[in-house]
Amino acid sequence: MPETTPEEELDRRFLSAVRGMSSSVGDQSSSVGDLSSAERDLAGDGKAPATDGTTDGTAGTTDGTAGTTDGTAGTTDGTAGTTDGTAGTTDGTAGTTDGTAGTRLTGEQAVALFDAQAGSRHLDLAARYLRAEGHGFYTIGSAGHEADAAVGAVLRPSDPALLHYRSGAFYLARAAQVPGSQPLRDVLLGLVGASDEPIAGGRHKVFGHYDLAVIPQTSTIASHLPRAVGIAFSIGRAAKLGVPSAWPADAITVASFGDASASHSTATGAINAACRTAYQGLPMPLLLVCEDNGLGISVRTPDGWVAAVHSGRPALRYFSADGSDPAACFDAAAEAAAYVRASRSPAFLHLRLVRFLGHAGSDAEVSYRSQAEIAADYARDPLLGTARLIVAAGLLGPEQVIGRYEAIRAQVRTIADEAVTHRRLASRAEVTGPLAPRHPGQVARRAATAGPPEAREGAFGDRRPETAGPLTLADTINRSLADALAAYPELLVFGEDVGRKGGVYGVTRGLARRFGVGRVFDTLLDEQAILGLGLGAGVSGLLPVPEIQYLAYLHNAEDQLRGEAASLQFFSAGRYRNPMVVRVAGLAYQKGFGGHFHNDNAVSVLRDIPGLVVAVPARASDAAPMLRSCLAAAHVDGTVCVFLEPIALYHTRDLHQPGDGAWLAPYPGPERWAQEHVPIGRGRSYGRGTDLTLVTFGNGVPMSLRVARRLAAAGAGVRVFDLRWLAPLPAEQLRTEAELTGRVLIVDETRRSGGVAEGVIAELTDAGFRGTIARVTSADSFIPLGDAAAHVLLSEADIDAAARRLLGWPAG
């Protein structure tokens, strides 16, 4: 006999256990359960906590569309616990808000939960056979986690949800609340990579749907939790500011994740940020759902660890339930949701679950788990627990439960057979279409639009920046941020020390006083939390401008840009977006403030993130229009931008000699913004020389201009081209500037390996440039303290010597 597969064994065990149940239903001949019998309440007095919302989660029809709602689930009474952050019970019982026994779960709701759970189970089985038939891809399922259907059932479909990859039953239960939804079809189209799959469009298998407020996540390590904290914060902040939001003012955010992910630094940081925010008395309506199966692939989570860490934490209410007990899960989820909604404080819902079919399709768990241990988990099957409840309550008989289960199996098979006929993505252009939409005309018009006169009056009074005379780079960014706050009511500026102190370099000085701490505020010292707040604010309809205090501090949080920010439009086919302009103080050459962490020159980690815009303004006259372009692109296209500000140039005034003021520039008034607009990817050229082109950016610009002037005095015609944008590079301009001289020297202040020069050389080579190319860079080294930095950083002497070599001149 052929060996039984894990999928067959799971299926067989469930069916055998149901057949062995005794029934109180007289007629078991029907192949599909009689819903009329499910209208009775389950055992209990009905005084347990009400579900949070107005839907009853009725099951969908057999064509994959969701049923309608009838509002029988009840409403919350606002009595679900206190707001002082004290923990709930720690012994695994969910408890009730009024101390009475019983469950609020109705018979109809129990059957609806079963349908969502069975649908999720059959989707997992379908993923396996579609893969075996050559129609599907890598599989990772929800089998054993179906208890999370209760969470989906008690929340409102307008509550933003960020789901763990094992939260399939939640997705189906939520979809059941929205008429016209087709969740089985949604997931099956994702499994086969169909181009018309409703969220990712065949780019990835994710749970997500715009109409269900389910934001797609690609996370496997809880990297979505900082965004979840940001969304929860932004619900209250948008209401406070009176600006439109993507979510209702009384919405709560839900984020699910696994027990292994709960130990990741991203998760611990995000949960800490949520607790700290709530501890300060600020709204943080966040429901954290830990789906604890005790395993991270093969690594075991210590028994009791999740409860020990998260129960009793300040400002975090703890709830828990056994996933094999559907009534307990429903009541715990309802109580937790009611607490979060009423108190606007975070809660931690701990569901103790099992994992079937291994970590993923390719995982042979028999290599690290005994057969006895695997077999013991079958008794804790959430689907079996719900079936047991339904049969014991006399709602359906065993054969009716099996008939319902088999009908859903047939439904999934029918939809799967149709799904495999759908076309997949067929071209590079189709794949990358939603990655980085660009509407330069709309961006230019928005960038040229100032705030209303009264808003500018409130921002500047009688001290308009256009009348202030020449300004430094730092002062210009400060005035540009003030103009942006006046022009965009939804704009927020935040980060470490940006509020009361006004930034460590004074760039945000006075903004909190003028615009209020609701719009300009300090955050905790956690770059992942800062970027997560930006991600959550952006997807909620706000325009975030977070500051990372130093470039070196970005690296521990960079995945929030790579894995979360830049990927959202790609994995949602443009339905979701997180506009954001991240200000980062960086690069080297600071005087008297040495050391690696304050002089970091590593930017390659940013340049290879698809769709990310990287701007580097070297001088005041560029900073204002470039910042306006970044903000306008974020507003119009949902663009994620990094605005990299050269620290050493913040307060620079002179260029060639002391007192010349040549690095200052007047601030243009709004009437000149259209004329001085700088499109994304547009560089700046200096000089008309035909002998040599110096290609540079950032601190390299003033150094190159000084070298060019000295070479010109010696008889060479040198032009300087400031890239201004490191992503996307100004490729067409770059080639033109190179062809005008036939000789290119790339002046790159970053490291030799992985530096910007490599990308510039590649662009010129790919474009067919046949002239001479050379580069000068900083060393492959961290930057040391004090004068020792000069030994590893690019210098003007290096530039001069390399230029002379290219010109065929003797060393100067």
Structure in words:
Helix 2 crosses helix 4, helix 6 runs parallel beside helix 7 and helix 14 packs across helix 23. The model is unreliable at 25-40 and 43-101 (pLDDT under 50). The longest helix has 26 residues, at 107-132. Helix content is 36%, strand content 12%. The chain is elongated. The protein starts with 5 loop residues before the first helix and ends in a 5-residue tail after the last helix. The protein has 812 residues and is an alpha/beta fold. The strands form four sheets. The chain has a seven-stranded mixed sheet, with helices on both faces. The protein has a six-stranded parallel sheet with strand order 2-1-3-4-8-7, with helices on both faces. The protein is built from 27 helices and 20 strands.
Put the structure in a nutshell.
By secondary structure, the chain is an alpha/beta fold. Helix 5 packs across helix 12, helix 16 runs parallel beside helix 23 (620-637) and helix 18 (527-539) packs parallel to helix 20. The protein is elongated and about 100 Å long.
Low-confidence stretches: 25-40, 43-101
> What composes the largest sheet?
7 strands, mixed
Number of helices: 27
Shape: elongated
**Terminal Cα span:** 86 Å
The overall pLDDT, averaged over residues, is 90
Structural class: alpha/beta
Strand fraction band?
Answer: 5-15%
User: Helix coverage percent of residues?
Assistant: 25-40%
With strands numbered from the N-terminus, the spatial order across the biggest sheet is 10-9-11-12-14-13-18
For the secondary structure, the number of strands is 20
- CA-atom Rg in angstroms: 30 Å
